[in-house]
Task: structure prediction
Amino acid sequence: MSTPLIKIIEVGPRDGLQNEKNIWTVEERIQLINLLTPCGFEEIEVGSFVSPIWVPQMANTALVFQSIIKSDHCRYSTLVPNQKGTELALTHNVRNISIFTAASEAFNKKNINCTIEESFERFKPIMVEAKQKNMRVRGYVSCAIECPYSGPILPEKVAEVAEQLWQLGCAEISLGDTIGKGTPETTRAMINTVKTRVPVDNLAIHCHDTYGRAIDNIEAAIENGVFIVDSAITGLGGCPYGGDNAKGNVATELVLAFLNRKNLYHTLNADAIKTARQFVLNR
Result:
């Protein structure tokens, strides 16, 4: 049996920066992504085509996307909340987009002001256009372990939402421990349930390190066949559900150290990651 390649998706420039209270300039965002490109990621999330009124951190994503120096060895994606966002992505020649929903009705209503079912109604025209224009779509499922408003989430509910995204045509589905309350046991139970409905090769794990369990949970996911891992350089973003100083996305450098410690196969460049990390810390 060959050693699996662990693919890393860098979400710092989008999922990380959108939760930073100190807003980064367009120039800083471009420089960050240009430093992340040589790091060996499978994909870098560049930004989000959301209204700058609601998410000012993601203003001018089109300019950022147009200005970065792209590599043929990396995908560059943007998140789109609706069909208007998809049209903006197409206008600026974005070929990889992400959509998001949750496994929690309470979270969806507070986060995007609609039910889970209504979020899928929004996705349908996006997926039609994406298929017509040959765009790759990644789906996010928030609250795959627990919700800040309604508590623990049943694995069966996560599997149901993930399967709907898969049937719509998402190439990859990222399962998010949004508030970082997962454990290896709950992560394992969730993954094992979801992979009965969605091919495990098309699943990713998105862990928050709020309570210091992200690496343990990533290890549990990998042990159960998930070889795509989301991370953010320096753990950018914090966690809006864990207090002012709570950790958010798991830090890319912690994931790299874990992969090396376990002798797992990856394409990350330690020197480039160190350079990108220093840029963020010195900003």
About this structure: The chain has one domain: 7-282. DSSP finds eleven helices and ten strands in the chain.
